[in-house]
Amino acid sequence: MAKQRVSPTPRSNRVTSRPATPASSDPAARPSSAARPSPESRSSAAPRTRPTTRSAAAPARPSISPVTIILGLVVVAAIAGLAILLNQQQTRPTTASKVDVPVSLSEKGIPQGTTPEGYAFKGNPDAKVVVEDFADYQCPHCGTFATTVEPRIEEEYVKTGKIKFVFRDFQFLDRKSPTEPSPMGDSHRAAHAAYCAKDQNKFWEMHDIMFNNQPKQENRSGYNDATLEGFASQLGLNMDQFRSCMKDKPGEINKIIDRSMNDAKGKQVQGTPTFFVNNRKVESGDYDTLKAAIDLALGQAQ
Asked: Which of the following CATH numbers is that of domain 119-301: 3.40.50.2300, 3.50.30.30, 3.30.365.10, 3.40.30.10?
């Protein structure tokens, strides 16, 4: 084992971790400032244990990329825009957009009229075959029939004078209950508009334009004043007369609707559209089914 080398320097200048001897009262025995260890000699001495103190630094913040910021702004703008749009839809009245105006029955050469009970019909008033269509203006299946099947029936059987086609009200989708009507509901208001148009010989034109522009949802004010007046205007109706009718005649029109509804119950009508061909019930609006029933009735009527 190698021996520790001893420096020839006096004891008072040796580098130690503590004084070699106890402090003496003799001033000559006390180490002078020159005898204190130098920085160089401190480094070779045993390290002192000191508590490490750090300044309280702020925690590191996660960095946010510019792309993330932009995407966040886009999302916020989209949400704000959607909120504005929904608010406008809730507060803005619905108005009828410009639609194709149906060709009038007079231009088609098809007669029209009113039954003794007050129901509108088109076709030969003396035809031996009568087809009754029980429908609701909000009914999607009624809309499908009116826009796809009825034009074919009209061309083949109504225009040729073979049948009389009658519209019967079964306005049930806006009723408060099976026995309590809703005179100001969408189904009834649409029926009112059709009857007010009938006063100006435009029942079937109003019938067609309403079914062609049927609201997507039931009982959401799809047939409001602005929409119905828009339809009437596009059909060329006298608007003062139409507005007066809508305001003053609901009671009279509802009597016709209620009469038709009661008759439908007696005929066991369960839904719309339901048809009667010479009083024979046909519960399908399919063209082939209705055509077969009409042809059978025509054959029996000869």
From this structure: 3.40.30.10
